[in-house]
Design goal:
Layout (H helix, E strand, L loop, with lengths): L18 H4 L4 H4 L11 E3 L5 E3 L29 E6 L2 E6 L26 E2 L13 E2 L10 H29 L15 E5 L15 H6 L1 H7 L3 E4 L28 H13 L3 E7 L27 H4 L11 H11 L4 E5 L10 H12 L4 E5 H4 L4 H8 L4 E5 L6 H12 L11 E5 L15 H11 L5 E5 L56 H15 L1 H4 L3 E2 L4 E2 L2 E6 L3 E6 L7 E6 L5 E3 L7 E4 L6 E4 L3 E3 L3 E7 L2
Parallel strand pairs: 7-8, 7-14, 8-9, 9-10, 10-11, 11-12, 12-13, 13-14
Antiparallel strand pairs: 1-2, 3-4, 5-6, 15-16, 17-18, 18-19, 19-24, 20-23, 21-22, 21-24
Organism: Glossina austeni (Savannah tsetse fly)
Keywords: Membrane, Signal, Transmembrane, Transmembrane helix
Protein name: Glycosyl hydrolase family 13 catalytic domain-containing protein
Length: 636
């Protein structure tokens, strides 16, 4: 060995070598014809042949070789040591298994033995395997090591994928159910359209020639298709000779027998609510109630009214409201229990003690609450002082304003602009205007056959105004007053504007059957073609904040979104705008001649609405027919 320059010092490899390896045979025993070697990894067997020792990695199990019966020289002792030697700045490690003095019959070469794990105190199953299959585990191994991790991974993956699919389904459902538009909301009685009905002339259900509450219930589908939010039932209370003297009511809680009974009113209310339509009752006080009386519920701390102090109503603190027991409060409480959604208190301008009205308004609105509507007529405000009027407007939801479209475009434009800048001007939380063109005490818009188009033009103009619009029954089809050319119904001549409703000939249900005469003569022919325009206009209004909102409400200011102008003698222009929404303009010609004009100083172009096709229009040569209203969506 010294001749090869290799040291025989055992400390060089730090391996305890057995004595037989240190005392190697002669050179010819290991390597004939070459110098003898002391390489410790070469061994000899009994027949003199050279057999290389087996290298073993510390983590490599010793594998049995059934073909070699002399593998006992493979040193797989559990206590084998690994020595490291360094030379020229590098290091190498060699794991050498040194055989121990164990009997050859022992399982030295068990294929399940790992040199980095002791084979004593192991946990094995009946087959000698550890809990994880082939690896035996010591007793102090944590319990989670023995868990069924393949099953846990499968379950975790299943839960993860299920959660992912569930979240995706929720997101898809939310996207599908999202509204097409996101418009600002208002209270149901603000900015929407009401439909006023005189029940005796709307629909007959029992073929006695007179309309009734059950007949109104049969026409709910018509009201829903029209697009109205609420109906106003006027004159439903009992009178000595209903309906001829419907104004002379004898009770505010008893329904006229010709119209039905209390159960019919309950059924009508339930059916309307199921179709998302509210119901409002007109409460006529005159001439049934002549004085309001004192109001205990509206008494303030100062307990007096001093008209010399303009801000008295604004600075006074209101105590707890106590409802005064009288006919009006009893009426309101009674019908609220029946599900009525609001009241139009009529005839207040005729009461003798009008100065007590502000206190009573506090009571009435307190009874109704925020989700019910309280309406009074605009003429009542002129009977109050400034301080009384300002206070009254805080406890009323809608002010009914009648527009006389026959007074001329100049007067109409003046009145509209005056209202837009008055105490009833558009605001965020204040009173809103309730626009009316007709009613039970007004003449019909269609007064002769030549006014058919005028009714449509006026109604479309009304539906462009800021506030709440009220359509009197029949105006959507240009219903005219009853025709009595032979003067056979002279005793009801004052009621001819309340002609019975006309229904389409394609409708199997008419006002009454053919064998029964209605209580009023029929009106001349109507124009059902107008109905489609009214439906489209109401739908446009309901989805357009520029039209149904009465103002642009910002944090520090409230801006008007309506501009009313007059052009020529008979042209009325109403422009409606709203931030980040389409702007609209209506041009109404209430004259009897076609008009051509240049409006490029105001607008350039737009799309004509309410038609079946989108018609482009330019305002450089704008033409409008007589008694016509054109609605245009302005180009941005």
């Amino acid at each position: 060995m010294n001749t090869m320059g290799i040291s025989t010092d055992p400390a060089l490899l730090q391996v305890e070598l057995s004595q037989n390896l240190l005392e190697s045979p002669s050179v010819s025993t290991f390597m004939p014809e070459e110098e003898a070697s002391i390489y410790p990894l070469l061994s000899s067997n009994t027949n003199g042949t050279i057999t290389p020792l087996t290298f073993s990695h510390p983590l490599t199990p010793c594998i049995d070789n059934d073909n070699d019966s002399n593998m006992s020289t493979n040193l797989c002792n559990e206590d084998g040591k690994v020595e490291t030697s360094s030379s020229s700045g590098s290091s190498s490690g060699i794991g050498i298994s040194v055989p121990s003095d164990i009997d050859a019959s022992t399982t030295l070469f068990n294929k399940h033995s790992y040199k980095h794990l002791p084979n004593n105190n192991v946990i094995q199953d009946a087959n000698g395997h550890g809990p994880n299959g082939n690896i035996p585990l010591p007793k102090d191994t944590p319990s989670f090591v023995s868990w069924n991790w393949p099953l846990i991974r499968k379950c975790t993956f299943f839960v993860f994928m299920s959660s992912l699919l569930a979240m995706c389904a929720i997101v898809v459902a939310m996207i599908v159910t999202l509204p097409n538009v996101c418009n600002p909301k208002t209270v149901w009685y603000r900015g929407n359209v009401f439909y006023e009905i005189f029940p005796a002339s709307f629909q007959d259900s029992d073929n006695d020639g007179m309309g009734d509450l059950r007949g109104v219930a049969k026409r709910i589908d018509y009201l829903k298709a029209l697009g109205v939010t609420a109906i106003r039932l006027n004159s439903v209370f009992n009178s000595p000779h209903y309906p001829e003297d419907f104004e002379n009511v004898t009770s505010l809680k008893i329904i006229a027998p010709h119209l039905g009974h209390l159960d019919d009113m309950r059924q009508l209310t339930r059916m309307l609510h199921s179709h998302n339509i509210s119901i409002i009752l007109d409460v006529p006080l005159h001439p049934f109630i002549k004085k309001l009386g004192e109001s205990r519920g509206g008494v303030f701390i100062n307990n007096s009214i001093n008209d010399n102090v303009d801000n008295e109503y604004e600075t006074t603190v209101e105590p707890q409201i106590v409802v005064t027991e009288n006919l009006i409060t009893e009426c309101l409480q009674y019908w609220l229990e029946m599900g009525i959604d609001g009241f139009y208190i009529k005839g207040l301008e005729h009461v003798e003690d009008i100065e007590n009205l502000p206190y009573h308004l506090v009571e009435w609105k307190n009874l109704l609450g925020a989700d019910k509507v309280l309406i009074i007529e605009a003429g009542v405000l002129s009977k109050l002082s400034l301080s009384q009027r300002q206070f009254a407007l805080k406890h009323v939801d809608l002010i009914d304003v009648h527009l006389d479209v026959f007074a001329g475009t100049s007067q109409l434009e003046k009145k509209l602009n005056t209202l837009m800048h008055s105490e009833m001007r558009p605001s965020k939380t204040g009173v809103w205007i309730h626009w009316s063109l007709g009613g039970v005490d007004k003449m019909r818009l269609t007064r002769n056959q030549s006014n058919v188009d005028f009714t449509l033009a006026a109604t479309l103009m009304q539906l462009m105004l800021p506030g709440t619009c009220n359509i009197f029954y029949g105006d959507e089809i240009a219903l005219q007053a009853a025709s009595d050319s032979l003067n056979e119904h002279g005793e009801t001549k004052h009621l001819h504007h309340l002609a019975v409703m006309r229904w389409s000939f394609n409708d199997s249900l008419q006002f009454t059957n053919r064998e029964t005469l209605p209580w009023l003569p029929k009106s001349p022919d109507v124009d059902f073609h107008h109905l489609q325009y009214i439906k489209k206009m109401i739908a446009l209004r309901n989805r357009s904040p520029s039209i149904y909102k009465n103002a642009i409400c910002k944090t520090d200011a409230i801006l008007q979104n309506t501009a009313i102008r007059r052009s020529h003698d008979d042209i009325l222009v109403i422009e409606r705008v709203y931030p980040r929404r389409n702007s609209f303009v209506s041009i109404s010609n209430f004259g009897r001649k076609e008009v051509t004009m240049d409006m490029t100083s105001l607008y350039y172009s737009g799309i004509v609405m309410l038609n079946n096709s989108d018609q482009k229009i330019y305002f450089s040569d704008f033409k409008i027919n007589a008694q016509e209203t054109i609605i245009v969506r302005l180009d941005k």
